[in-house]
Amino acid sequence: MSTIADNISQVAARIRRAEQAAQRAADSVQLLAVSKTKPAAAVREAYAAGVRDFGENYLQEALGKQRELTDLPLCWHFIGPIQSNKTRDIAQNFAWVHSVDRLKIAQRLSEQRPAELPALNICIQVNVSGEASKSGCTPADLPALAAAISALPHLTLRGLMAIPEPTDDRAEQDAAFAAVRELNKSLQDSLNLPLDTLSMGMSHDLESAIAQGATWVRIGTALFGARDYP
Ligand SMILES: *Cc1c(COP(=O)(O)O)cnc(C)c1O
């Protein structure tokens, strides 16, 4: 029988093996549990098994789950596409946003971040797969966007997020994740900022992402099972 707790142990073991294979420190990779389309009860089960960070793509669904789970000390991450009219609720109810890909959205998140909360942690989503992916800023636009975001007062730019085109070819996975790592490194050098975060790797490609430097892996299916979309 596969429970969420069993799945968490299996994913934790995959992460540990990948850290070792890459000669990276134990626990240098953090698990972000992607709970989109799954009920609050599933989040509760994952919490009981030790998970604290949860990622959501759809704002209304996320806010509903947050209301059901106010008794738990959870850390919420927004990882989906962002429309302008959603920024206020995101700024008020999340600790991280992984999917910022234009300045207008970042400016609104900064303006709307409540003063009593710590700065909102931001990853810029970058598109390293060209036309295959519609979300994310282009590598060419990244330096200017990162410089502008790093100057906004209520945000902390932490690094990059990417969702490369899915492939089972390990060499292709490695090449895409390595490109994200190199983009982050050159931003870090040019902006002179400590960009300590690479949000990359999902259920099917976390080993490659960890080999290339991921610090957050965003895992849905391998923890909660396949999703039924409405
Ligand atoms: C759904 C989703 C995930 C999780 O994907 P799985 O393949 O189910 O692990 C990770 N990141 C983002 C941005 C997602 O939308």
UniProtKB/TrEMBL annotation:
Domain Alanine racemase N-terminal: 11-227
Keyword Transcription regulation: no
PROSITE patterns: UPF0001 (PS01211)
Keywords attached to this entry: Pyridoxal phosphate
Domain of life: Bacteria
DNA repair recorded as keyword: no
Recorded GO MF terms: pyridoxal phosphate binding
Cofactor: pyridoxal 5'-phosphate
InterPro entries in the cross-refs: Ala_racemase_N, PLP-binding_barrel, PyrdxlP_homeostasis
Residues with N6-(pyridoxal phosphate)lysine modification: K36
Function: Pyridoxal 5'-phosphate (PLP)-binding protein, which is involved in PLP homeostasis.
PANTHER family per the UniProt record, alphabetical: PROLINE SYNTHETASE CO-TRANSCRIBED BACTERIAL HOMOLOG PROTEIN (PTHR10146), PYRIDOXAL PHOSPHATE HOMEOSTASIS PROTEIN (PTHR10146:SF14)
HAMAP family reported in the protein's UniProt record: PLP_homeostasis
Record-stated family: Belongs to the pyridoxal phosphate-binding protein YggS/PROSC family.
Identification of the protein by name: Pyridoxal phosphate homeostasis protein
Organism whose genome encodes this protein: Pseudomonas kielensis
